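ARCHIVE CARD
SHELF: 3
SLOT: left
DATA:
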Amino acid sequence: MSSSNTDNPSMLHGHAAYVAGAAKEAIGTYVSSDPSWKEAAAETKDGAVAEMRAAKEQSQDQPGKNETVGKVEEKLGGAVGCEGMVGEGKDRQ
């Protein structure tokens, strides 16, 4: 099952879903020999990337909101150590 949220895409939800996919991948790699973990991880991560792309496209149409979201994204990215979020946040400002 994909975790993509195409009706109302959210960059934050997309990042959270990607982290969940990475956790599934780690379980599939280090804990369980069941290949379904890795398959679920790939599907979750793909859905998350699609949601982040959709959220980025949607936010480009909203300049004022875009700058505010960029500042928040940069700060959150720095707090959790996600260089991609920091870069995206800076690009939005």
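SLOT: right
DATA:
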Amino acid sequence: MSLSRSPSPNRGGGWSSPGLTAPFDNLSGRSSPRKGYGEYQINGGIGSSNVTWASAKAKSDEINNGYPSFSTRNNGFFSRHARQLSRSLPSFVKGQRDYAEKEKLGRGRWYPNNGTRTGRILGFLGRTIWRLRLRLLVLLTFALAIVLFYVTPMHRVYRRASFLGGGKRFVIILAANQGGGVMEWKGPREWAIERDSVKNKRKYAKKWGYDLEIVDMSTKKRYAHEWRESWEKVDTIRNCMRKYPKAEWFWWLDLNTFIMEPSYPLQQHIFNDLASNTYRDINIYNPLHISHPFNNSHLDKTALSPVGNGKISSIDLIIPQDCSGFNLGSFFIRRSTWTDRLLDIWWDPVGYEQKHMEWEHKEQDALEHLYINQPWIRTHTAFIPQRKINSFPAGACGDHGEDARIHYKEADRDFVVNMAGCEWGRDCWGEMYNFRELSNKLNRTPWEKFKDGISDKVKAMKAKPKEKKEEKGSS
């Protein structure tokens, strides 16, 4: 196949592309023509072809088919020195390639790291990322939104909103004597207990968007005619209901309590399934042996039923029971007309004046008395298993902690621990410290677990030579 428009740079004539000329025997073995156009002789050329530049140009001019003859526009510097410039450019192809290879086989392409395996891997990753750039952009935007959600206060706004997280419905009331005791000064251990307890509740309330009300109990003597040490719990709840008019549930916590599992929100842990997490019939667990329900004929069906009306909406008071009866170290009370009536009667000075010498547990015994004698109290009261919100350490309600209904179990990851009665012969600070450290250990992040594992291995490796030296010394 011969061309009429331009000569071939090969000696045998034709072009080097296999698709344009017949196979040829001898290839130069170079990636470019051996010589430029200017190096061929005009008279006869070099080789067997008689086609010269002048004859090819003359023959092209003779063809008159309506198209102008081919001519080079730039007859200056580039036409004379184009080949010399191209020869001086660097070559990025590793090794020698045949000039007959097509362009798509990689002639003149750049390979990272001179075509090594690492370079090919990097090139493949780069092409893959470029093809998936839109998906990666969407994924990166989503990840950035999640980070901003938790870094900024947006997650607290979400968890507090009543139509989203619902955290605004709950208020945690913590009884603390931050300004010092009334009858005695607090020592370093008492201050340490208060500091850890307050920090624990603040962290939990902030995490889930709850309100925290820390009550200063140093004003216990504000009543002229009496000093109700723990009876102020009733008055404090009523004041908090006035302070937080939009809140629905109020959670009272004693100072000697510690939230062991801050990852449990109240909604998921209790209130999303209140029917299965509480029970209305006290006969399920009745340490006080209260006769239930009433059998008086003049009462209505609701008062005579062991579960009241059976509706979740009628539950206004949720309390746990320990081995001796009601326990108000951790309990819930709901805003309602029934609650206002209960608080008024509960706080009635008449009951205090008549029974305060008999009731050892004060407001707790007063509530038990109301539950036993008043049918309208039972219809709105529900009980919750002790370990759901108020687990006891081993020293409370038994020396060995063998009661599965009351005592804390690490394997079950109980929600709250109440060091009830620790001031009577037990170490309150020691128990608080041990449970705080256990909570930190149980709620470690994967990265913290990894670091602690490495640290434990290093300590074990260092301890082995010391043990060997001690054994040798003793022998």
